[in-house]
Design a protein that fits this description.
Blueprint (H helix, E strand, L loop, with lengths): L26 H15 L10 H16 L13 E6 L9 E6 L1 H9 L9 H13 L7 E6 L3 E4 L4 E3 L3 H4 L2 H11 L2
Antiparallel strand pairs: 1-2, 1-3, 3-4, 4-5
Helix pairs in contact: 2-6
Length: 182
């Protein structure tokens, strides 16, 4: 719910800013809830959308918090990290490429970084894939990403799995989205 002028940190007197609202309902019921909230609290609720650079920030920080340790908890149902990239429209026959990274490989990649390195998991995966697949990842757009704790897409879809309580702070994940989301 957005009651902040110009999306700045200063709210008008008497107004409250809730940066993000998650709904898990059928579309019709969700629309009714949104309309009720907008009427009841005289507010505006907009669908979350993330620019590619915002999605990259959320994904890098969340994956770092989830996998940046030498030994993690054993996953009950280990899921790979899935990264989906869209090709530019100038390439007619290819629309997207998906890259899967096992949790063990992600941990190894993050733990083995040079001390003081600022490159995140995405940069490491993209550098490796660019080298081995000869694909220029700088020309691709990250559109979706997910792991065993969450799934997020640029069009505003977010799915949070029960695993998030064991691997990552739900509050930190939501705050990362709220900082970047528009």
């Amino acid at each position: 719910m957005d009651q902040v002028h110009d999306n700045r940190a200063q709210a008008s007197v008497g107004f409250t800013h809730f940066s993000i609202v998650f709904l898990k309902t059928p579309a019709m019921l969700g629309q009714l809830v949104i309309q009720w909230l907008e009427r009841k609290f005289d507010c505006r609720i907009c669908r979350l959308s993330l620019q590619t650079y915002e999605l990259r920030k959320v994904v890098n920080s969340s994956l770092e918090a989830t996998y940046n340790h030498a030994q993690g908890r054993e996953d009950k149902r280990p899921r790979p990290i899935e990264l989906h990239y869209a090709f530019p429209q100038t390439i007619a026959d290819l629309r997207f490429v998906s890259v899967s990274v096992s949790p063990e490989d992600a941990r190894q990649l993050l733990v083995s970084r040079v001390d003081g390195a600022t490159a995140g998991l995405l940069e490491g995966v993209e550098a490796h894939c660019s080298e081995s697949m000869k694909v220029d990842f700088e020309r691709l757009r990250l559109t979706r990403a997910g792991c065993s704790s969450w799934f997020i897409a640029t069009e505003g879809k977010v799915k949070i799995f029960p695993d998030i309580a064991d691997k990552h702070s739900l509050q930190e994940f939501i705050q990362a989205i709220a900082r970047c989301g528009t």
